[in-house]
Amino acid sequence: xxxxxxxxxxxxxxxxxxxxxxxxxxxxxxxxxxxxxxxxxxxxxxxxxxxxxxxxxxxxxxxxxxxxxxxxxxxxxxxxxxxxxxxxxxxxxxxxxxxxxxxxxxxxxxxx
Amino acid sequence: xxxxxxxxxxxxxxxxxxxxxxxxxxxxxxxxxxxxxxxxxxxxxxxxxxxxxxxxxxxxxxxxxxxxxxxxxxxxxxxxxxxxxxxxxxxxxxxxxxxxxxxxxxxxxxxxxxx
Lengths: 112, 115
Prior knowledge:
The structure holds two protein chains of two kinds. By secondary structure, chain A is mainly β. Chain A is 0% helix and 59% strand. Chain A has no helices and eleven strands. Chain A has strands at residues 4-7, 10-14, 19-25, 30-38, 44-51, 56-59, 62-67, 72-77, 86-94, 101-102, 106-111. In chain A, strand 9 and strand 10 (101-102) form a beta hairpin. The radius of gyration of chain B is 13 Å and the shape is globular. In chain B, strand 5 and strand 6 form a beta hairpin. By secondary structure, chain B is mostly beta strands. Classes of the chains: A mainly beta, B mainly beta. At the A-B interface, strand 4, strand 5, strand 9 and strand 10 of A face strand 4, strand 5 and strand 10 of B.
């Protein structure tokens, strides 16, 4: 059974810092991996989707990498801003089903 | 265009009662997913519809949970004899065709509290 973990569980940084969020998964037979953002009381917003054949995706200040063989992905946020404060969720879609398996999330606070 | 919508946004009920949660997917999306998110956790898969049929219901925790999508658009998640442990945020997502490379678009969720 696929399991997804995220480290750290919570992170607080001053504005302007570059930061890295980590995601690990136990079964490397994944189809793709997606990073989401969740604001309090809101649904999930897709940030980046990496197919299993890709190694990274970039969107603005965000860069996500994927190392399928080691079961790891990182989300890099450059020049963090207070508006980046949210919970960041990693999810993998494996080769066995249509659904995503989510990690517990990293709660990020960017202080002005 | 309109995103995924869910109603109600909040639902408070008593233990043992029956509840229905509604999801309106993005128009034209054939794939629809239900997830449940407990406090401090990531969402957990419940059920996936392709059109009107439940293609994968392996995530439903027990037979008190049931979902329908009779016309291939709106879906209703039904919970019978609610228990306090059912308290969570129920998220709905849709995608255009359900192909494995697609992203899923999530609604804001229904926050269910069972007293």
